[in-house]
Amino acid sequence: MSIDTTSKAYRNRVLAVCCVASSLVPFMGSSINLALPQIAREFTLNGVEQSWLLTAYLLSTAILQVPFGRASDIFGKRRIFVTGLIIFILSTIGCGFAYNGLMLTVCRAIQGVGSAMVFCTNTAIISLVFPASERGMAMGVNVAMVYISLAIGPSVGGFITQSLGWEWVFFITAAIATISLSGAFVVMKERWAETEGEPFDMRGAVIYGFAVLALIYGLTLLPHLVGFTLIVASLLLFWFFARRELKIKYPVFNVHLLATNRIFRMSSAAALINYAATYPIGFLLSLYLQEIRVMSVRDAGLLLIVQPVVQTILSPFAGKLSDRFQPRIIASAGMAMIAVTLLAVAFIKPETPLWVLIAALALMGIGFAAFSSPNTNAIMGSVERRYYSMASATTGTVRLVGQAFSMGITTMIISLVIGAKAITPEVSDALMRVVNIVFVIFSVLCAFGVYTSMARGKR
């Protein structure tokens, strides 16, 4: 029985498969954060070893998204997507059966390989299946699924860890991934190989990988000298990479497109700034609520859930609006709302009424919804079909780099203000200064992001 790949039913089935795949990492990541103390006790891990459970995954995902994006254009997006899910499932099961910290860290790095293959194709497949008039709506649904996972991850992950053990966070995530894999086999009927037969630039991929490795690892080491050294080295490697890619016929990353396509360039820059300015919000407000306001983990988590819930509800509507109106207007308005709210939160004090914080988180949720799916819609709509995987991989990479940058800046401010002391209620005054300083810095950065978002030009 033949399937009409242009029908609405087919499009919705593919979107459902991609949405389930999109939910895997945010659900697992937010769940693992709560499981880390139990994992550390069982394997007697120190702070550095715990951080590598997160860093190993981050590095492998960031390094490989762009190369796998190019590979998916040559060998087919369906093949890379399915292979990525298989690798993710097997490595996730391996995490659950890990018998020491080293095995768990290695399995987390392999998880990153699978995630890179899924993420570089996920948005590209949605863009290929849906017409331009419906793309924003589809992006909004996909973004909403991500934030549903982020919202339920802490509570569900905490329940699983407490009731069954941390291993079951991985086993249940693997089961969800298996649902997406089964759907991909049944539903996806196209190969989506736009540049089949072209050669793969392995040398360029290696140079790019070392550049990303040096950048992200360097950001995690700030404010130490070795961190600044690695960042400078990464910039030199990126310069060398860009020069090389401009000269060859089949680059792993089309630098010429980045240089000449203003909408793609400025939209990607806006995404980078957005992630860099907003990623530490949950981390800092969690410290503020628990260490300064002395709230329980449960109560702090319930309060912080406001922002992802609002974004989940509004993202599909924002995406649909970007199908009808210029995405830069909607995205820029969202970024402006985030900038103003960050500035307001920068002046919170220990005695600030909780309703003020709840209102601020709700406004941030509106701003995130207005920015995320319209901006992604603008990025995917600014390139030809043959570049969808590259655009999708670029979006994923700037997200990870932005997150690493924001945590690097936050860690540096904490180091300068608090030093090497443990973060406890005893250093609440210093922690309050950190919260105020960081939110001022990121509100200014977000304001610059509004200019970047508007400067992309019309679709």
Description:
This protein is mostly helical. It has helices spanning 8-43, 47-75, 77-96, 101-129, 132-163, 167-187, 202-220, 225-247, 255-260, 262-278, 281-292, 297-304, 306-324, 327-345, 354-381, 388-417, 428-454. The radius of gyration is 21 Å and the shape is globular. The model has no long low-confidence stretch (mean pLDDT 83).
Question: What's the arrangement of secondary structure elements?
Answer:
Elements: H1 8-43, H2 47-75, H3 77-96, H4 101-129, H5 132-163, H6 167-187, H7 202-220, H8 225-247, H9 255-260, H10 262-278, H11 281-292, H12 297-304, H13 306-324, H14 327-345, H15 354-381, H16 388-417, H17 428-454
In short:
The protein is an all-alpha fold. The chain has 17 helices and no strands.
Helix content: over 70%
Portion of residues in beta strands equals: under 5%
Name the structural class.
mainly alpha
Terminal CA distance = 39 Å
Low-confidence stretches are none
Gyration radius from CA atoms, angstroms: 21 Å
> How confident overall, as mean pLDDT?
83
Q: How many runs of DSSP E, i.e. beta strands?
A: 0
Q: Counting H and I runs of at least 4 residues, what is the number of helices?
A: 17
Q: Give the SSE order as H and E letters.
A: HHHHHHHHHHHHHHHHH
For the biggest sheet, the summary is: none
3D shape:
globular
